[in-house]
Design brief:
267 residues, mainly alpha
């Protein structure tokens, strides 16, 4: 392996011979708390049975007090591998990517934009319905004058004075800028879809474009968070630190004696 290649290279450059001598107890080396003596490879080195330890040996303060290390050539961590727990079922798992405050703000923005789209569609002079409404108010023909007089007399909206000779014409005009059409238009943006009835005024189209951009960002964040949430929930691991491992009784665990993890857990 890599350590053997390093020894071979050192032997070539420094002109020495070598022989591998494994420790009698086949241990890396730890101190006996009772006798204060070292075992394993470190014990053989301190007893002059060997001249050098050639292995990836973890460092700790106890070992550094009795031996000298070379420049580190490997960086590794310690991980505990346990059997995953079955995650608890949650029928509302699709809401987990965002907290309730975020969902509330999204719904609030949704209803505010619905109201704005409906308002602009009805009263903007550049919208289809608003253009008709403004034309009726300025027109000097007999029909429009009669409608304005009737509106003042009955104190009603200008729309209520409209007389339809055909019910189809009435349905078509009501669909141009109704609250329900605005509600449906904004709802399709939640799922990245659209419908044919778009606002005719520039301000309404700008608001709709803003809503689509906002939903594109929210959808991307939702997808990423949902994937992470489902992955973590499937793992169901309740251990995150060494203290969690020491404080629980569910998992049975142990360490190999005279090795670095044992020393870490003791300290």
């Amino acid at each position: 392996g890599m350590v053997n290649d390093m020894v071979v290279r050192l032997a070539e450059e420094l002109s020495f011979t070598y022989e591998y001598i494994p420790p009698a107890d086949l241990k890396f080396g730890a101190i006996n708390e009772t006798t204060k003596e070292w075992n394993g490879m470190i014990g053989d080195l301190l007893a002059d049975k060997t001249d050098m330890i050639a292995i990836d040996l973890s460092t700790n303060s106890a070992r550094k007090n009795v031996i000298d290390y070379s420049f580190p050539f490997m960086d590794a961590g310690i991980k505990a591998v346990v059997k995953g727990e079955s995650g608890t079922g949650n029928r509302f798992f699709f809401l987990s990517p965002f907290n309730p405050l975020v969902w509330s703000m999204v719904l609030l923005a949704y209803f505010i934009l619905v109201a704005l789209i409906c308002f602009l569609g009805k009263f903007s002079p550049y919208g289809k319905y608003g253009a008709k409404l403004n034309a009726v108010r300025r027109c000097s023909c007999t029909e429009c004058v009669t409608r304005r007089d009737e509106m003042k007399k009955k104190q009603c909206s200008l729309h209520s004075t409209k007389k339809y000779n055909c019910l189809v014409e009435k349905v078509k005009e009501e669909e141009d800028a109704s609250f329900y059409s605005s509600l449906w238009l904004m709802s399709t943006g939640l799922v990245g879809q659209t419908i044919g009835a778009l606002p005719h005024c520039i301000s309404g189209r700008f608001l709709l474009m803003t809503w689509w951009t906002f939903m594109l960002i929210v959808t991307s964040m939702y997808t990423a968070n949902l994937t992470a949430s489902l992955t973590l929930s499937n793992l169901g691991i309740s251990l995150s630190t060494v203290l969690d491992l020491l404080a629980q009784d569910t998992y049975k665990w142990g360490v190999i004696g005279s090795r670095h993890p044992e020393t870490l857990l003791k300290t």
